[in-house]
Amino acid sequence: MIKRSFFGLAKPRFEYESAVGMPVKPEKISVPKKVTLFFKETCTCPSALIKCGDKVRTGQKLSLYEGSENYVISSVTGTVSALYPYTGDFGKSYTAISIDTADQEETDNTFGEAAKSVSLDTAKNFLACVPGISCACAFSDPAGTVKTVVVCGIDKDLLISTNPYIVSNCPEDVRSGVGILKKIFAADQAVVVSGKDLMKDISVIGSASGVEMRLVGSEYPAAFPQEIMRNLFEVSLPAGKSCKDMGFCFLSAEAAASVGRAFGSGQIPVTKILTLIKKDLTKVIVEARIGTPIGDIFKACEVITEDRDRIIIGGPLTGYAVYSEDYPVQPDTDAIMVQGSEAVSSVSDYPCINCGECVRICPAKVPVNMLVRLCENAQYEAAAAEYDLHSCIECGLCSVVCVARMPVFQYIRLAKYELARIAEKEAEKEKEEADV
Ligand code: SF4
Ligand code: SF4
Q1: I want to staple 101 with a disulfide (CB 3.0 to 4.6 A). Which of 28, 76, 161, 248 is the partner?
Q2: For residue 1, is pLDDT > 60?
Q3: Which ligand 1 atom sits nearest the alpha carbon of residue 221?
Q4: Which DSSP symbol is given to 15?
């Protein structure tokens, strides 16, 4: 919801929606005929461990190479039908694996044995792609720096009800997951944060020993990790540092529930909860296997897309557009939003008119008007050195308010991605030189 002040000079407010009135039951999507999963690495086929025709079971861990830290968990039982390169957002390279689903489901039991040892290594080796996990390194903490585990029962972007739904409907799983996370990170503190509407539900979770509950504000972007650290823990994140560098590990309520369920049952969860936001902004909570084509969800929920409509993975401020209904549900797909062509806001190549709206609204106090000039001209290093690129928390508000309709946020994300890629290449080169 957007609130504008009667007095024109005040900045607009964007508020998270209330969890009251949220759907109670999810729309369950049938197991699809085919699922597609993404490895975050490229495949040079002759040396790959997986081949077309291989049989896989539900919950089976699949790696492309011997010793690779990257893996996916098969969300169905079936036969590998394709293995191919896939180019994602910003030209990122992945390897996609398609699995044709068999009639009879068989569950892989390898994790069942491993789950007897509740440890960070077990989580890292088996649970890095459970529903709700957005980063493969969620369970990495080699230096043992994590002192506080924060579980978020509120989604970062607007209009999404996935994590409030989990808190409200699976509090026992979240409670068990938070306790396990605190233990495996050997953290001093475990905190569950949510909006005030879910106070009653988080009380159930908070009854686990040593778990605190905190409320976040309703104004966007209060649910971002950097804002939670600043507002609830009075810790500012220095530019270029991660939350883990400062001793904080943030995970969603769904990720915590998945961890709780996995260790409780000895089986890796493979079903994702997500919010489908339709063209008329009505919402459906959906339950689908990871890897399900989004077209199957549209069919089950009677969403019809037409030419020039836009499909957004994620929320309206920070999501990204996809161009095919074959795109699969990922472990971190918290929302799918469908915008009718008339609601799609256009971007332009007009220059910045220096109105200052983006600077006024930026929660990280970045001089966005100056930053965008360097980013749009690919001056990424200067943008980081001179105009605080790495302080941006990626909330997307600058793009929303830009009167020139510049894709400000997209320029910033591209700049960060390019700098990360350059740093990675330099680190690889240094390593190669050191090995010679
Ligand atoms: S996305 Fe824009 S408004 Fe948000 S923190 Fe970054 S620069 Fe500021
Ligand atoms: S809101 Fe847009 S036009 Fe205004 S200063 Fe920022 S980038 Fe420039």
Answers
A1: 76
A2: no
A3: 4
A4: B
Pick the residue whose CA is nearest to atom 8 on ligand 2.
352
Ligand in closest contact with the CA of 355: 2
Residue type, 336: I
Residues 364-393, mean pLDDT to the nearest whole number: 95
Report residue 301 as tokens: 């929920």
* ∠ Cα 160 147 210 (to 5°): 75
Whether cis (ω within 30° of 0) applies to the bond prior to 221 is: yes
Instruction: Return the best residue to mutate from 368, 387, 412 for the ligand 2 pocket (most ligand atoms within 8 A of CB).
Output: 368
Contact 309, 338 (CB under 8 A): yes
* Selection from 313, 389, 338 nearest residue 89 by Cα: 313
Quick: pLDDT tens for 298-333.
999 999 999 999 999 999 999 999 999 999 999 999
Ligand 2 pocket member 355 (CB < 6 A): yes
Protein residue closest via CA to atom 3 of ligand 1: 362
Residue-level pLDDT at 399: 95
Q: Which helix (H) or strand (E) holds 14?
A: strand 13-14
- Cα–Cα distances in angstroms (integers) from residue 330 to residues 24, 75, 133, 283, in the given order: 23, 11, 9, 19
CA distances from 388 to 62, 212, 366 (A): 40, 34, 6
Angle, helices 380-387/368-376, rounded to nearest 10 degrees: 160
Structure tokens at 159: 């209009």
